[in-house]
Amino acid sequence: xxxxxPDSLALYQALSRIRFFEETVLENxxxxxFFGTTHTYLGQEANAVGVLSHCLPQDIVFxxxxxxxxxxxxxxSPYALFAELMGKSSGVCGGRGGSQHLQWRNFYSxxxxxxxxxxxxxxxxxxxxxGHPAVVFVFLGDGTLGEGVLYETLNLxxxxxxxxxxILENNRIAQTTPVELAVAGSMAARFNAFGIPTYELDxxxxxxxxxxxxxxxxxxxxxxxxxxxxLHTYRFGPHSKGDDTRLAETISAMRTRRDPLLIHAARLExxxxxxxxxxxxxxxxAGFQKALADPLPDLPQEQGLPS
Amino acid sequence: MTTVLESLNLxxxxxxxxxxxxxxxxxxxxxxxGGAFKVARGxxxxxxxxxxxxxxxxxxxxxxxxxxxxxxxRPVVEIMFGDFLTxxxxxxxxxxxxxxxxxxxxxxxxxxxxxxxxxxxxxGPTHSQSLEKHLLGTAGLRVxxxxxxxxxGELLLNAILEDDDPVLFIENKLLYLCHIPETAELAxxxxxxxxxxxxxxxxxxxxxxxxxxxxxxxxxPPAQLSIAAYGYMGHLxxxxxxxxxxxxxxxVELVIPTQLAPFAIEPILSSAQLTGRLLVIEEGTGALGWGxxxxxxxxxxxxxxxxxxxxxxxxxxxxxxxxxLEAKTLPDTAAIIQxxxxxx
Lengths: 307, 344
Description:
The complex is a heterodimer. By secondary structure, chain A is of the alpha/beta class. Chain A has 12 helices and 9 strands. In chain A, the strands form 2 sheets. Chain A has a 7-stranded mixed sheet with strand order 2-3-1-4-5-9-8. Chain A has a two-stranded antiparallel sheet with strand order 6-7. In chain A, α2 packs parallel to α3, α2 crosses α8 and α4 crosses α11. Chain A is globular, with a radius of gyration of 19 Å. Chain A starts with 7 loop residues before the first helix and ends with a helix. The longest helix of chain B is centred in the last third of the chain and has 17 residues, at 232-248. Helices cover 35% and strands 20% of the residues of chain B. Chain B is globular, with a radius of gyration of 20 Å. In chain B, α8 (266-275) crosses α9 (290-302). Chain B has 2 domains: 4-177, Thiamin diphosphate (ThDP)-binding fold, Pyr/PP domains (Rossmann fold, 3-Layer(aba) Sandwich); 183-343, Rossmann fold (3-Layer(aba) Sandwich). Chain B has 11 helices and 13 strands. Chain B starts with a helix and ends with a helix. In chain B, 54% of the residues are buried. The chains are: A alpha/beta, B alpha/beta. The A-B interface holds A 60, 92-94, 96-97, 101-104, 108, 110, 112, 115-127, 129-130, 148-149, 152-153, 155-156, 159-160, 303-305 and B 21, 23, 52, 54-55, 57, 59-73, 75, 90-91, 94-95, 98-99, 101-104, 106-107, 200, 202.
């Protein structure tokens, strides 16, 4: 099967959609239009876009609490995701799941740290056993490294040759806990110890991420066994809505050096970049408005419970 | 004569024969060992590709089972001792039981997690418990417990092949050894088999395939008291029931459900409405447990018509390894007889 990779313009469009989506979420949370909480992907956009540019239709993605960027890069609708955050019937999961619990086509997410790793591995094994040539992309974070079930899973994934691709986005902070206070030793050694070939990249350049992922996803597909990629990255926004404990200067410094949109825009004609940006912005705004107008569901009616 | 263990083992063979999507995952499953309690015996020989013996990783095993179930297979995960279910709680509660509902009914998770529970074998505090009460009442998780009536293997077979939702299947260790009585051996009893549907089944298909058995002594006068019990306690309650009838002329009606969650109160309620007295028995600890829920539901439904209700359960302590101490901790036939005598 031939798979056409997105070109430079399409990559910029994908990055922009995630950026505008997440900014819209943070801007509008104080208005009370969303339920619960959210975990935005600002600053990490290049990871989802670069990695999932290699996701074929039969492939599976399992994401975590910080899943909006993965969902949009997978091809999910911003309108349906806004509607989900707003608890609307038209949401990705009818408003039942909310920000962290999405399922659409071969995309899944769950907000429990670590627990998704064995699920993704079981999926990979199931596809392999049924003769389906699928790769499962599972997104972990530095915080996930604290969960024991991850290590059970790495052992099993390696023992049973599951075609699962572990992508660890190290944004260097788990909620408010910096990686120095949470992760001992080496991240890569944790995967290597189980015989899973592991690569690291410290970049916010979507094309660099796309290139390394292409090689590794290809290896998973070809060898029908696991690989891991550690992407050192930065999150520009708070863990959820407004709980950032980092110094403002620290964040602005990383925004200057590591903004994936600025890095990639430098490759485009300024006019082209501006056009893509304004089209993406308009698409996100339209999705938001449309979701806002949708009705809220009725739980008793949905579940067959007495009203 | 077939034992419960043989019936369950046969069901696993049948399930794997009938459906190539059935996989068995668990620890120490390979022949000649065939699992710690031998329920998996012969399977790795008959279906070597589909029996996956694993490292000691209960949480990941259940997680992998869920993942396989989400993607077209019908996995069965064996957890060696029910006590180890604690290690799988996150996978059962926050993953397997949630997916169908939180993904807006867009997916199904046809996963069966089987595990032996129960004491009376001297295994001590961490290998003798009946922990199922901790997992009852989780929306999206069906909990079944076979007894030695009917066909326990068929219950398992239905859970594996017909149920598209996650099932926790509780097998009592001593029940394994019980033989399933032939019709002639049950001549003392009138047995009614029903398939009660729970009133509310959030995130699960409502149709029930799990029977409940209502037993009376054949030709006896109307029962004076109702007993509700499941699993191996159903077996002991049946012995107590015979003893009470023949030695004491006390007649009770015994209801043995095989589905613990979501729970259908109907057969127990019907019985209690006839007798006005209810004794609920469980092998797990009594505090805040299954029996408490049953009594609460019956009290709500019957009000002042419920003349007496009692719970009989394990002491609210850990289970000692020492034989005589363990025997005093867990309810036995004598304790059931004594409890009934106090109530009528």
